[in-house]
Amino acid sequence: MDAPVTVLDRLLEISDLFQRDLAREFAGSSLTPARTRVLWDLVHAGPSTQHALATRLEVSPRNVTGLVDALEASGYVRREPHPGDRRAVLVSLTPSAAELMHAMQRDHAELSDVLLGAVAPSDREAFLRGVGAVADRLRDLVEAAEAGRTAARAGVER
Question: Where are the domains of the chain?
Answer without folding.
Answer: 7-94
